[in-house]
Fold these 4 entries.
Entry 1:
Amino acid sequence: MKIVMAVIKPFKLEEVRDALTAVGVHGLTVTEVKGYGRQKGHTEIYRGAEYAVSFLPKIKLEIAVADADVTRAIEAICTAARTGQIGDGKIFVSDIEHAVRIRTGETDDAAI
């Protein structure tokens, strides 16, 4: 089992969710986060004054998937989240040692 963590632009959330559902990946956790990468934020003008926005709003997705579904999940996220502009995001994949569904007590792949 793996956990796929993706940081994407907020307006791409629905497209990514639809793409994951289409490839058979169900269930994800969404968190609103702020951060920056290579773009290091940007400047905006508010009431005539210029100010720097150091941390940009992003969406962090966490998806627990079986090992066999990792590649499909990553491809679906990349296709749906890509705009071709800087700041499209990143995907990280980590191992999950153990998972338990609280309601039924199912473990590991059955819990996903």
Entry 2:
Amino acid sequence: MAIYSFKDYTPVVHKSSFVHALAAVTGNVIIGKNCYIGPGAAIRGDWGQIILEDGVNVQENCTIHMFPGKSIVLKESAHVGHGAIIHGANLGRNCLIGMNTVIMDDAEIGDESIVGAMAFVNAETIIPKRSLVVGNPARVVKQVSDEMIAWKTKGTELYQQLPKDCHESLRAVEPLREVPENMKVQEDVYKTLRETFKK
């Protein structure tokens, strides 16, 4: 793991969590149980404290940072999609932040909200709980249904299982030079939102 102390602040990572060797976690960062931090993620607690509560995932190439003196919390089961930037914002419990979204300083994302891919959430924006948020600038377009949050929760559960799977099976290896004849296809355990609600 690429874990760095900064000005006597050393990250705290629960043993059940997984931080990929190509991620960087720096300074005053606290990572709870069953969290997944993907390759290319940068979590910089050099200027303030960053807390990831239990079951949070921060996927590939995400950045989490803030202005000096600020502290932020990603609450339990928050789900941060590939390439997102969280800069000085707080994320509510069991929310979903879509891929390549940017959430700016002092914004608050409510519990069980879903922020669509590539949204831009302005500084100091307060998103009520159970909101579906899209666009640039981001705006609430409707409330998140029970069915949508059930779909989101199932996806997050896959990421909460991933740290254990990585601890048990992820290894650096030399690549194969040919495709094995008996190569298995991964199990189809999760559908896209569109597939899930297709009538």
Entry 3:
Amino acid sequence: MQLKYPALFQQQCYINGQWLAGSEEEVITNPSNGEVIGHVPTMGQNEAEQCVDAAHKAFSEWKLTTADHRANVLRKWYELMVEHSDDLATILTLEQGKPFAEAKGEIAYAASFVQWYSEEARRAYGEMIPSHRPNGKIVVTKEPIGVVAAITPWNFPAAMITRKCAPAFAAGCAMVLKPAPETPFTALALAKLAEDAGLPKGLFNVVTGDAIAIGGVFTADKRVRKVSFTGSTNVGKILMNQSASTIKKMALELGGNAPFIVFDDADIDAAVEGAMIAKFRNAGQTCVCANRLFVHDAVYDQFAQKLAQKVKALKVGDGFADNVVIGPLINAGAVAKVQAHVEDAVAKGAEALCGAFAKDGELFVAPFVLTQMSDDMLVAQEETFGPLAPLFRFYDEAEVIERANNTESGLAAYLYTRSLGRAWRVGDALEVGMVGINEGLISTAAAPFGGVKESGLGREGSRHGMEEYLEMKYMFMGGLDQ
């Protein structure tokens, strides 16, 4: 690994401002070739408790700092991320597999959250409410919620961390983080830069190892006032149940089953480009990935042909190879799920316009486009999380809205139409937290990210993401006429 700043590659956990090794280690491999990248400690309950201890102590001091001070520290962290973006992207590609250019894009996206909340730190406004008594004042203040536990996924190992940590630190909170076991090195590199930026010891703690033991401490310890999790719906439900005994605030960004709707009046070329982004970014391993592509009968064949032509041209391979657009999937289980969805669809009458699986043991999947899909196929009901674009035919607006909403998930949706009225009608009718209208890439630090139904609770990004880390306190000041 060639890094300009070798200290970014840490193989120890970061607890209370110290880099600590463990008695046991986990091996981290490169999904492109299976080679060992390095090792991280296998830690558990004791170390998780140390993290909470340190965070609780650091919070008592950090919450008293000025908004300007917190803003300046976050700004320095942002600048260091930009300065070392090549190194961060190198680490990310090695452990996650996405192409280097795409990894650089994620680092920029991750840094944008730190930049945004470095500015938002100064805007945690309270309010004055007209009083019900002439001799009193109603004042509402905002206070940091306290120690926050975050559990982040492997698909965006940098952005999902800063999207949680930056608003937490800006609000005056402390953070304990367990990164995904597949991608710990990106998290540790970010912690190193946070240390360099002047974040005080104990405020940011990163622990790797036993998910059940560490998660158990996060959900049971009363000093942890919020749990923020991005991942599967099933795990989110477990964490929610475990957190009930201490009534924690929850932020859950869970699974999706995003519809991508192409109406007969759409700009087909623009819709194809949007589908390429919404479906195949990160090899289809995104929670807002277009999972069911509904295409109007009048433009179905045209859209399918143009999409397949572009998909066939995508180069699959190692993330550091030239012109590679699709990297490996994260593990063999991810490949198996794509294969199960393809085989189920083909057995029920679907036609594959393109796509192929690599030889046994490899995690590369040449992206699929399937036509003649029906709603009884697995891919209509489950999130594939891989490079598979299934095209479902529809005939009218009411029908496609009903089918699009026929899912327990409600994270994102996309629609393409030239009709302003239809854009508003369908956008309003879709049961999701985010809608891309004539746009396939909707994520930005400036907008609230999150879903409805079983896709989770709360929002990340925007000013609303800051509010998630603040508690309101109402004070009535009476007797002001004395």
Entry 4:
Amino acid sequence: MILKSPGIRYGGEYVFTGIIEEMGAIRSIKRGDRSAVLDISANKVLTDVKLGDSIAVNGICLTVTAFSPRNFTVDVVPETLKKTNLSMIGPGSRVNLERAMAAGDRFGGHFVSGHVDGTGLIADKRPYRNAVLYTVEADDTLLRYIIPKGSVAIDGISLTVVDIGDTCFTVSIIPHTLAETVLQYKEKGDSVNLECDMIGKYIERFVIRHEQRKSRASLTESFLSEHGFLD
């Protein structure tokens, strides 16, 4: 029997590392009113699975609602379908799978929450020496959190940003990562899930709140009187 300690929580949410454990395949999809139920074949991630466990599917934290020795089921809510590429997959599609990080595990990637920020499009894919360079187009609301040599999760894979432009960024994929993940099947024009580095988002939030507090603190009676708001 393989025992695994409970998944680590970060701020109340389960943490993933972006190190893909295996590729699974979509066995079936039951589509509802902007929602879906996925049945996914897998092996490794099911060795210690329990109902209610979290598994990242293409970087999306989803809850196991049923399982057998060779497959598991998850529900996908409308908001998840709207923000991710799960609406574009079908039976037979390959997906990246990762269990939540367990206490005592090595931390090989970066903090990944499993909450996808949005999707990008592969704009270019080309060999470069022993690697493959992927250029991904993304909206400015995502690019603002992406920096050269920083971290980004693409379909749940922890990757280092090589460079960034006005509308896109580039990552370099080594042969091992390509062979073990769904990126090997992705081509120009394909959609990928993106999760930006959560630390950058926390820092931005802190700075915004700090500036808001400073702004409120500056609204003194003398300031309002000086600018004509008080008689």
